[in-house]
Specification:
The structure is a single chain. The chain is mainly alpha-helical. The chain has one domain. 64% of the residues lie in helices and 8% in strands. The chain has a 3-stranded mixed β-sheet with strand order 1-3-2, with helices on both faces. The termini are far apart.
């Protein structure tokens, strides 16, 4: 993602009261999870790896997750319903990103990664027997 666009998005998030964290501790955590970014369960923080500007897909996915938390509330991961809600939101986010790929400025690599993630989440959904 272009650094100017990233900084504009970050500025907008801060105006909404969302805190952006980029530090060594989160770098280690995100790298261990194979992620460029992550949203806190309450939607008050977005964590990005330090250094290079994250991919547009990573930024927009976290924006979508913040919107989902505002719309649906936090996910409680203590039971199967929490896992179902998690998968539902991931599928929703991936589908929205694919629908808006051009507007969001995604690269072919971004789109390929999103498609792979969508298939992974849909497979997990089916394996859990959640239905439609």
């Amino acid at each position: 993602m272009d650094i100017k666009r990233f900084n504009k998005i970050i500025s907008g998030l801060k105006k909404q009261g969302i805190k952006i964290i980029r530090d060594e501790e989160m770098d280690r955590y995100l790298k261990a999870r194979g992620a460029e970014a992550m949203t806190s369960n309450d939607g008050e923080f977005i964590y990005f790896q330090q250094g290079a500007t994250p991919a547009a897909s990573a930024v927009f996915e976290e924006l979508i997750h913040c919107s989902q938390i505002r719309k649906y509330g936090q996910i409680e991961y203590i039971n199967a319903d929490g896992n179902k809600e998690y998968l539902k939101r991931e599928i929703e986010a991936q589908e929205k990103m694919l629908r808006n790929a051009k507007a969001y400025g995604f690269t072919k690599n971004d789109i390929s990664n999103i498609e792979n993630n969508l298939q992974k989440y849909k497979k997990a959904w089916e394996e859990k027997g959640y239905g439609k």
